[in-house]
Amino acid sequence: MNHDAYEAVIGLEVHTHLLTKSKLFCGCSTEFGRAPNENVCPVCMGMPGVLPVLNQHAVELAVRTGIAAHCDISPRSIFDRKSYFYPDLPKNYQISQYETPVCKGGYIEIAEGGEPKRIRLVRIHIEEDAGKNIHETGASLVDFNRSCVPLIEIVSEPDLRSAAEAGAYLRELRAILRYIEASDGRMEEGSFRCDVNVSVRRRGASELGTKSEIKNLNSFRFVEKAIEYEVSRQIEVLEAGGKVAQETHLWDPVREETRPMRSKEFANDYRYFPEPDLPPLVVPAAMVEQVRRTMPELPAARRKRYAAEFALSDYEAQVLTADRDTSDYFESMIPNLKNRKSAANWVMTEVLRAANEAGKSLANSVPPATETGALLKMVEDQKISLNAAKTAFAAMVKSGKSADATISELGLSQVSDESAIAAACEKVIAAEPAKVAEYRAGRDKLFGFFVGQVMKAMGGKANPKVINEILRRKLSA
To answer: Containing domain of residue 401, as a range?
Structure first.
């Protein structure tokens, strides 16, 4: 089977919950993890005679996302009814947007493979989420807590050509959403999930192949594996002389394969028509401008700034800006530090390791950034060694005490007194005449032995730089 003769054509539809306290058309809480059917009312349960009232904050967050994604913000858009029948949709229709979304066009830029590439967007529209089906042995249950939670759906053009590009696109999109505080992007809670449209065609062909849609993927790894599997499956079908059916598939993470669920719907199957209970959505230019003025620096801009101002590598900048909390922590650490690259490395190793081990956010797992910065300033000023800083940081994580207090309590201050270090060097040299002779005869590698002996004699607290300078001077005398 010649995979190289084909290319994949991939488009993504991302559904992400908006960070509102109440639902899209009622006042019920959006809090995750409440008891089943606790966050419900007649509106989100679809009772007869109820009327929706639009959540203004949801609109503002949708506009915020559109600005971040370089979209055109529609001054006037319309809500539509999307009709389908399923137990978790009590009204038997979903309030969504179709032909006139709030955001049109735009793009997300990725850098997979080193070259920047713009993935165009079709639209970003607002809609309500459905409930959640829970299938138990002998019974199927429905939890309506998620029903009517505000969503935006971000629909890309079929510009992606590989699983790796799809993964890069999703990571960048989620980072943007979290930076602008439009969504928490918690995939494990279902607040950021993805439908993948995949087709293949002969390389050089312009006509699109028949696509399959893989529904409700909630991890980057599942998206990438599902695309790789589906591309191979479709190529096998075509190579065998068959035709790819337009179907909706589910991803089986245990067997690592896609399985057909139903034939793929077309837009007219949903019988879209304007929602009669909601007037057109008018977004004033003044509102768009107000949202634009409050936009934070986005991940891509931060990466470029980190490379230009701090001489960080692409990888370092990528790691530091993947999450806004991490990036903000780094920036709060560095005002008094000269070596920004060393500070970046500290965040990528010590800080993120401590947070990962705790399984909590940075704010709840590591010392304040100013205290970590103070610790690294002591290293720069040669008041403590790097190893002492690591010991102190681990203690600070557990105790919550300041850098100064921790260094004092643990007795980690570094000795830089030249007379004390010189005395220790003289004792070591006097005790090892044979090794001194070998060193002076050209065995340079013994220098490390002498440094270690002096450090041992001073309880590991001597300034290594001062030790090196004095030892070299005395051994060459």
So the answer is: 297-410
